[in-house]
Design goal:
Helix content is about 45%, strand content about 15%. The protein is an alpha/beta fold. The chain has one domain (about 5-130, about 170-215): 3-Layer(aba) Sandwich (Undecaprenyl pyrophosphate synthetase), CATH 3.40.1180. It has a 6-stranded parallel sheet, with helices on both faces. α2 runs parallel beside α3 and α3 packs parallel to α4 (about 105-115). The longest helix is centred in the middle third of the chain and has 24 residues, at about 65-90. Farnesyl diphosphate (FPP) binds near residues 11 and 13. Farnesyl diphosphate (FPP) binds near residues 11, 12, 29 and 75.
């Protein structure tokens, strides 16, 4: 059975679900947050060590301001209400991406990271204002600045996921088959699962089925 340490998820389909069921994209994001909470709980049950979640990409700034503001308010309230609970569950929160939000949100993100820094059960990497091409270019620039050799080891040192094993599983919900500038380096050998369901419809059972399927895959890493 394949070991499983790290699951990455592109939580796609909130907008479509919201429009279809509540006539509002934002209500889809709210429903998506409930799914997120369920998947965090199940990840702990499954003894997963790292969960990396794509919540806001560098390209998502192109959305209407009303939707962007709603998403960040949702995140702010989630952290204000739930960070103690996450901390109590020994969960570590790490933000990947560039923190260039309002002063208030930046501070809240930093204090949430600081509070949970030493936790060891599950590490949640929340990708916010994250773009993989930027991350990789930044790593090359850092190597250059330090006059280091360009090699895999040195590049990894400057990725936001340094010291974290690459994901064994990537899940993308929402019936779309693309990577959308997410973890392009780290996903080189990841098993990818595209789910038809929209993120608010995705549930623990779907998640467990993917994990079961993954565990039985023959992973060759180039060998035969
Ligand atoms: C993609 O669906 C989803 C997002 C851009 C936001 C993800 C946010 C959550 C799951 C809610 C939790 C919130 C935070 C900030 C932690 P989409 O809007 O692109 O859906 P569509 O493809 O149907 O338009």
């Amino acid at each position: 059975m394949n070991p499983l340490n790290h699951v990455a998820i592109i939580m796609d389909g909130n907008g479509r679900w919201g429009l279809k069921h509540k006539n509002s994209r934002n209500k889809g994001h709210k429903a998506g947050l409930h799914t997120l909470e369920k998947i965090i709980k199940e990840s702990i049950k499954q003894k997963i060590r790292y969960l990396t979640l794509y919540a806001f990409s560098t390209e998502n700034w192109r959305r209407p301001k009303k939707e962007i503001n709603y998403l960040f308010k949702l995140l702010e309230n989630f952290l204000l209400n739930k960070i103690n609970e996450l901390h109590g569950q020994n969960i570590k929160l790490k933000i990947i991406g560039v923190k260039n939000f309002s002063n208030k949100l930046n501070k809240l993100l930093k204090s949430s990271e600081k509070k949970t820094l030493k936790n060891t059960k599950l590490q949640i990497n929340l990708a916010l204002n994250y773009g993989s091409k930027f991350e990789i270019l930044n790593a090359f620039n850092m190597i250059n600045k330090n006059n280091d050799k360009i090699n895999e080891k040195n590049l990894r040192k400057h990725l936001q996921t340094k010291n974290i094993p690459d994901p064994e599983i990537l899940i993308r919900t929402g019936n779309t088959k693309r990577l959308s500038n997410f973890l392009l380096w780290q996903l080189a050998y990841t098993e990818i699962f595209f789910e038809k369901k929209l993120w608010p419809e995705f549930n623990e059972k779907n998640y467990i089925n993917i994990i079961k399927k993954y565990k039985t895959i023959k992973r060759n890493f180039g060998k035969i």
